[in-house]
Amino acid sequence: MKILVINAGSSSLKYQLFEMEGTVVLCSGIVERIGLESGIITHKTFDAEGNATKVKKELPIPNHNVGLTEVVALLTDGENGVIQNTDDIQAVGHRVVHGGEFFNKPTVITTEVKEKIRECFQLAPLHNPANLQGIEDCTNIFAKATQVAVFDTAFHQTMPSKSYRYAVPAELYEKNGVRVYGMHGTSHKYVSETAIDYLGLKGKNSKVITIHLGNGCSMSAVRNGECIDTSMGFSPLDGLMMGTRSGDIDPAVVFYLIDKLGMKSDDVYDLLNKKSGMLGITGDSDMRDIEARFNAGDEAAILGLHMYTYRIKKYIGAYLAALNGADAIVFTAGVGENDHGVRLLAANDLEHLGIAVDVAKNDKLRASDIEEIQTADSKIKVLVVPTNEELEIALLTQKIIG
Ligand SMILES: Nc1ncnc2c1ncn2[C@@H]1O[C@H](COP(=O)(O)OP(=O)(O)O)[C@@H](O)[C@H]1O
Ligand SMILES: CC(=O)OP(=O)(O)O
Ligand SMILES: [Mg+2]
């Protein structure tokens, strides 16, 4: 059975095509820098021995729809494509960021499910519209395939009410579902399970802090494989500082912008989601561009990176308190896996809490597999675990369609 997985992030579209017998990856790829001046598509096909052939294209990708059209052309390309025609795919597993209180597990997509995903647009404005667009496009392109939604919010459903409730009048939760949902759950689940397995703690007591740093960023405190707290909230705007999102901010700022500066609420929402975070402080949202400026001594980039990593450090402290210690902290996603500078700034000067990073190990790491970067006397392990949301989604999709 062939399952295609579509993972639409806020700045990227990742995909993998699996032959589920033996979970063999037939091809995989990423469309990056969506919405920026120039986009990049990297497409890899694998032969029976697992050797990759890579195609890289640079072109403007104004939105996810254009990205997906390019991907389908690569999949079905007469010479290099991995499928003869679109009917070869039995199921498409879609990452959907926000499932609200509607979904706590994967589901086969129906008209009703699409309506509920649409109802959550306001809660994840950079994601759910792209996710639904992907579902509509794939329903047209892969007409014979079963479409399945896997929700970012599902893993966080184990949080206790003291973590997920906001201190606002109770009926806002009871009647309107105003609560912490948390996102990136598929990634937090995958990397925490991988770390727990790696540490030999499966079925035993375990405490892990997962740090997902992509364009969107979030952290989770995971006890015995279950999420007990997470940094994103009602929407993916909360918590850590991100590529274009502010993260934690005093809500009084919103009223100041509206009442004193005369901004419309839509514009404030746009400002906090699309013009803030690293973009707001440095003028760039892509961490590779910011790192280059940081290394050249650019003041805004230096401030931005210090703000970004200081907030991660504060959440590490908070989750060490919530869990009463940890076996490991785990860095993952585009920035977490690739940016040694961010990892070092976020996890240095934490010896008092039992965390010490080995600078040389961290510097030379090029993670394609799970790696340890702590010093010999660090009480807590510091791991880099490449996330694989696509594999997790493929397995969940296979399970649901039997
Ligand atoms: N080698 C690298 N060094 C630093 N940052 C990187 C590197 N490769 C990717 N990134 C950063 O990772 C981020 C994208 O991460 P990703 O997990 O793909 O995001 P998303 O899924 O939210 O679109 C971008 O900010 C990008 O600059
Ligand atoms: C929820 C979220 O922020 O996702 P991404 O990091 O893929 O944009
Ligand atoms: Mg992502």
From TrEMBL:
Subcellular location: Cytoplasm
Named cofactor requirement(s): Mg(2+); Mn(2+)
Recorded metabolic or biological pathway in which this protein acts: Metabolic intermediate biosynthesis; acetyl-CoA biosynthesis; acetyl-CoA from acetate: step 1/2
Residue positions binding Mg(2+): N7, E389
GO BP terms: acetate metabolic process; acetyl-CoA biosynthetic process
Keywords, sorted A to Z: ATP-binding, Cytoplasm, Kinase, Magnesium, Metal-binding, Nucleotide-binding, Transferase
Record note on quaternary structure: Homodimer.
Annotated HAMAP family: Acetate_kinase (MF_00020)
Name this protein carries in UniProt: Acetate kinase
Gene behind the chain: ackA
